[in-house]
Amino acid sequence: MRCPTCSAVLTTDELRKDDCPYCGAALPHSVEAVSKAKIVREVMRDFDKDGDGVPELLPKRRPRTSKPRSKPRRSSKVRVALSVGLACLGAGAFALVQEGAGLGSSSAGSGIVLVVDACPVDANGDGVDDYAAVVQRGGAKRRWAILDGVTGEASAIGSQDVESLNRVFCLGRDWFAIGAPDFSIEFVNARAPEPTVRVRGADTLRAARGGEGCAWLETSNGTISGVTLPGGIATPCDASEATRVENTMGLTDNDANYVTSNRTFSITARRQGSEVLTVSSADQEGTPLWTEELPYAKPTFGTAIAATSDRVFLVGAPIGQDKAHLIALDASTGRQAFDVPVDYTGPDEGSLMFISGDQVVALVGWSFCAFDVTTGDTRWCIAP
Fold this sequence. Notes:
Helix 2 (28-46) packs antiparallel against helix 3. The protein has three helices and 25 strands. The model is unreliable at 57-64 and 68-109 (pLDDT under 50). It has helices spanning 12-15, 28-46, 76-89; strands at residues 105-106, 114-121, 130-136, 142-147, 154-158, 169-170, 175-179, 184-189, 197-200, 205-211, 214-219, 224-228, 248-249, 255-259, 263-269, 276-283, 288-297, 303-307, 311-318, 325-330, 336-341, 350-356, 359-364, 367-372, 378-382. By secondary structure, the chain is mainly beta.
């Protein structure tokens, strides 16, 4: 069966819900069930003479002269309630009627063990970036979450575990998206996370970008499509620019860049021997300003770079050590400003780095932490 609103093919379990899990529209059989349940309540109220909640509808029966039954019969009130209820509901009620049920977020805060991926959103308008994230809550259970940029606390957590979830796509400052192995794609408004919007893609989600009132989607089989937000209706969507800043150097990469309004900062790793890191700065015309080889190597699985007008930040491992540190350089000269060891578990990697006001936020291993851009002091940290 398909949803009459978004045409998504619904499974048996999805048909048992009140609303379509992909577009949020009320399913026809659920609407009919609610209507018939209302009839049941009205019948029971009209014929409930003694106010006990069960109608007196059947006439009194004459006493039987045959042998008494071995099992007690249900009272006429119970028989009336059952017969009226089954007659009214049986024709169209496929799903249980559950007032207030639906997709969205659960109460926040609890049980986040580690952060897998994140990107910046604006969840509350306080001027500090918040973060849409993939979080793990124990075992292999992963969900989306919205993390407050000031405290690191979760303001909302998805209500459902998603198998193999490892990427979140921010579609601008308001919306973000995640994809599931069953080809479903869930869209969440950071400022109003309930209800979420769900659609079904042609394959697993590979990339997503935000447009004007819409989302551009690419699935693993190469299909390009678009949907309206918050409607979830198929539509062409013009969103040619990616919203995520590519400022990371992965396992097999040897360079990464970060561009500010007037500078480009680059990080490179030596290709032979120890992967010693070198950071350089250039102006808008590409004229080199300074180059600094650091006493740090690229962490095993990668690093990231970001900058403010005063500082350049990166993740590096002291030569001869495995553990990653947060390193800050003076943006004008390249001289080291501070070195902060990061308390983390998981892979030796600085996989994400964001600048928000007076703090730099980094995902190092499985620890997602915010640091003061001037001192390197930890503001908050989500760590196993």
